[in-house]
Amino acid sequence: MIWNDIYVAATGSWLAPPVDVGTALADGRYDPDDAARADYLSVAVAEPGENVADMWSRAALTALGKSGFAAGDVGLLLCAATFGAGVDGWNSAAYVQRELGMPGGLAVEVRGGSNGGLVALELAASFLRRPDAGAAVITAGDLFPMPYFDRWRSERFLFGDGCAAAVLSRDGGFARLVATATTGDPELEGLHRGDTPIGPFDPDKRFPIDLRERAKAFQAGGMPKDEMIQRLSAGPRRVARQVLGEAGISVDDVTHVIVPHFGRTLTTLQCLYPLGLRDINRTAWDFARRTGHMGPADQWAALHDLYENGQLKAGERVLMLGVGAGFCWSAALLEIVDS
């Protein structure tokens, strides 16, 4: 989908303090083989008692404060998380709406797994086609505390605590949204479910969540490994080719490639190779290896870091790739118009 007049007016982030991976290796929390493959330096870890609703709010307030828009200008607020804000039966986006001071408008949660930040981008861009839309705010991220989730062992990569936000409008900004694309492959949904029973309440649920065991259970169900790998590569390839093709450019014309913070090995296999790339330094790797994977926040947090550190120049193109459970993939192509 080509967009002609949607802009990123501002971004913001809130990241938990970094914890050196060497500390977790020394006390046995982190497996040395996993560490060698992922090659992280640190991971963002929030203090006990932190919650995602306040993290969403901090990132969104930062972005809104830099955007030139007032809370009353915002017609849409989208809050994306992997797990949610911890209270069942509650629209946590309304909490953020109040914290921002929005007098009205629509505030909802987006559940797209780790792709929620870019799914929200497509939804917000569509909303902004309305003549009276004003601005839209996306805030995305999560936290992964014990005993609910073991950030060091639940997956082959590390999970970090953080949120990032963006304000979108049709009235200009530092980046123009050129094109977006999203696709999915529901044959892979079991990778994150495994043999876990589906139901409204399970008193026997086991914690911490173990995504590796769920993946093993899914693979035991019969899908050949080669087919699974092919499907995991086809999604990102499809969406990247679509946005680049619609824009009339190739990946060689892109200055910055922003991908999920999956660690060195998985980032290369699941994100770079499908795009025809080999060099992880084409990505925001120096930032990613210091935060860990922050669910749906990765792309907006990396873009914010690049902008704040003066690494985005007018005329450059940025390709953002999102990967979420389901499976779901999104790509967004930006053109920097103001450095």
The name of the CATH superfamily of the largest domain reads: Thiolase/Chalcone synthase
Profile the largest sheet.
Answer: 9 strands, mixed
Rounded radius of gyration (Å): 19 Å
* Average pLDDT over all residues: 96
CATH class category of the largest domain: Alpha Beta
CATH topology of the largest domain: Peroxisomal Thiolase, Chain A, domain 1
The CATH architecture classification of the largest domain is 3-Layer(aba) Sandwich
Gross geometry: globular
* Secondary-structure class: alpha/beta
Q: Give the fraction of residues assigned to helices.
A: 25-40%
Low-confidence stretches: none
Strand order, largest beta sheet: 5-4-6-7-1-8-11-10-9
β-sheet strand percentage = 15-25%
C-alpha termini separation: 25 Å
Q: Topology as H/E string?
A: EEHHEHEHEHEEEHHEHHHEE
Number of domains: 2
Number of strands: 11
Keywords:
two-stranded antiparallel sheet; alpha/beta; 3-oxoacyl-ACP synthase; 339 residues; nine-stranded mixed beta sheet; Thiolase-like; ACP_syn_III_N; acyltransferase; Peroxisomal Thiolase, Chain A, domain 1; 2 domains; transferase; 33% helix
Could you describe the 3D structure shown?
Keywords: Acyltransferase, Transferase. Pfam families: ACP_syn_III (PF08545), ACP_syn_III_C (PF08541). Residues 110-180 form the Beta-ketoacyl-[acyl-carrier-protein] synthase III N-terminal domain. With 339 residues, the chain is an alpha/beta fold. It has two domains: 7-173, 3-Layer(aba) Sandwich (Peroxisomal Thiolase, Chain A, domain 1), CATH 3.40.47; 178-336, Peroxisomal Thiolase, Chain A, domain 1 (3-Layer(aba) Sandwich). Helices cover 33% and strands 22% of the residues. The protein contains ten helices and eleven strands. The strands form two sheets. It has a nine-stranded mixed sheet, with helices on both faces. The protein has a two-stranded antiparallel ribbon with strand order 2-3. Helix 3 runs parallel beside helix 4 (92-100). The protein is globular.
